[in-house]
Amino acid sequence: MTVAERPTTGFEIPEVRVEGRDKVTGAARYAADFSRPNMLHAAYATSPYPHARVRSVDTAAARAIPGVRAVLTGGDVRGMRFGRTLQDWPVLCWDTARFVGDRIAAVAADTLAIAEEAARAIVVDYEELPAILDPREATAEGAPILHAESEAASYRFLRGKREPVPHPNVQGFRRHQHGDVAAGFATAARVFEHEFTVPRVHQGYIEPRACLVWIAGDTVHVITTNKAPFALRDQLALTIGVPAERIDVDAGHIGGDFGGKGLSVDESVTYFLSLATGRPVKSVMRYADDVQATNTRHAAVIRMRTGVSADGTILAHETRSLFDGGAYAAGKPSPMLQPGDTMLSLAGYRIPAADVESTTVYTNTVPGGHDRAPGQPQNAFAAESHMDLIARGMGIDPLELRERNAIKDGEIDVTGAKASSSQVAAVLARLRADSRWGTRLPAGRGRGCAIGVRHVGRGKSSLVLRMEADGAVEIVTGVSDQGGGQHTLFQRLAAAELELPVDRIRVRRGSTAEVMVDAGVGGSRVTPVQGNAVLDGARKLKALLAQGLTPPFEVEGTASQEHHEYGAYAYAVDVEVDPETGQTTLRDVLLVADVGTVINPVALRGQLEGGFSFGLGQAVMEELVMEDGRVATPNLGDYKLPTIADTPAPRVVLLTDAPGPGPFGAKSVGELANPAVGPAIANAIHDAVGARVWSLPLSAEKILHALDAIAKGAKA
């Protein structure tokens, strides 16, 4: 699609969120708000040990408490596991607990207080086992095997055939090679090698995980916080042994997601409690339990090695990434059981020869899962810090080094793929112009830059558009609202294509029993995939109206997007560092983003600014601190998230002249802006005071340590 073919009007009208009134008035209902007559409440007995054999479970005292209606142990659900691709997470542990917080027993009672009292009354006899708490120990000689090969062979794999792994403690392994890597290093003028570490972090959503399950006739009803209801339905069917067509999943308003709510941990056990009691059962996780027991972003250790010519041109590159997958791989939807784009290590650059290896391992810690732009913040921190160190080592301006190596159309990236419609060079040119890059800063101030790319979402979608007799249009979809403004996007797309006022377009979300199959929210998919399904349906409506068909009637809108297209972005940040305290203050932030056609200006800016804030938290303050396998920062008082006072407003520059595959030439932005924040700030700190921090978060303590090392003549 050319620029001329894109709409010139219609998207400039003020945004009114479809669900906005319900949210601000309190009418919007989230999963925890729902109840049913005779509803029971669930609570759990969990393991206090990172690795232990469950010898026995005594539930007598719990069952004797008035108001307790059911107590289940692992023995009641033996062999039943759940997961998004690999179903390796037991509904309840029947023989082995593999992390602190692993569920041993479940209680359903008349009130939550009674259920929690009963859960505390359950007596479990444990035998502690050797634990793996550091991913670097997982494949060491003599390491305990966390999932015996005979047991792992029984795990259900939902994406064809599971790829073999080099060690029983490996969840997923990938390696890619292209070009003559050995020759590239042999002819390089300089070879640079650096190692970086990134901690485990939490998505930080405010709404707790919750579900309500009841059985009516032969149908299992589920109200959930899961953003992919059809995927949950299919996974749940395999776990509990009920056909998918007999499970109706309803995912309404979701109070934040950021990648974390594609996995459900409550629905299976809640179903079994409902089955045992014949009554609806509700489960709502406390925040401390959520942080300790659900899918966090993977901690990682990443080593990069790059050979460059005398002018800084990249000749060969190697990456060795080790990701801490935690106790189970259930939170990962990828068939390779990797946390997202782990192979896109040195992203956005021309790489003629590469050898990239990524390993995700089992440990006795919180299971890893997806978080906004999964896999990329870890790689971006390593890659863009690595590029800055190369530039400094070569005596080349860091922005200039990136400009020399920016990938152009037809050139090979680190995955061996040819770039198409690459906007990296254009983004960097605008960054140089708008950041005042060459101007001198006062002492204690420094600039840093970092680039990134993010794939435009892929997948399939289908929905229904109904032309009503009064001339209004109803869009019926299975896409949930998790705060991203999905339904407002659909409304604006249909209005633009049908040339109708937006208030003539209604969007209605339905449960899995009443709408067409949809992959759900995630993977930067909504605008390019579900948005194109809306556009397809709107065009079909127009065609039928042009033929004289009289309303009411309906059509199906469908879309499929499998092309590996990317959007590009870059940051330039200006920081001030106090050398006495290590305190860092952001003085200026510039974000240049390649976004294609802007459909919803307010939502787009919200996604980009929100992505910056998200990345800022992980860059300077967020860390799930682990002590002996237990999360030591289990609440938002200890686990620090950035507030508005911590977050400067970035200057945002949009590049819109390169259309993408989305409707009217749109691209994806929801996961575009957060990965490169950390390295941009790290590079600016280095520029300001000469201190290099090799791990996130970029705390004042680490900066002072690096300055002290410089003073002592050691490596910063």
- Our estimate of the beta-strand percent is 25-35%
Round the mean pLDDT to the nearest integer and report it. 94
Give the N-to-C terminal Cα separation: 50 Å
How many β strands by DSSP?
29
Radius of gyration over all CA atoms, rounded: 26 Å
Uncertain segments are 1-6
Fraction of residues in H or I helices: 10-25%
User: What is the CATH class designation of one domain?
Assistant: Alpha Beta
The biggest beta sheet is recorded as: 7 strands, mixed
Query: Could you say what the CATH architecture of one domain is?
Result: Alpha-Beta Complex
CATH superfamily of one domain: Aldehyde oxidase/xanthine dehydrogenase, a/b hammerhead
Q: What overall geometry do the principal axes of the alpha carbons give?
A: globular
Give the spatial strand order of the biggest sheet. Answer: 3-8-1-16-13-14-15
Structural class: alpha+beta
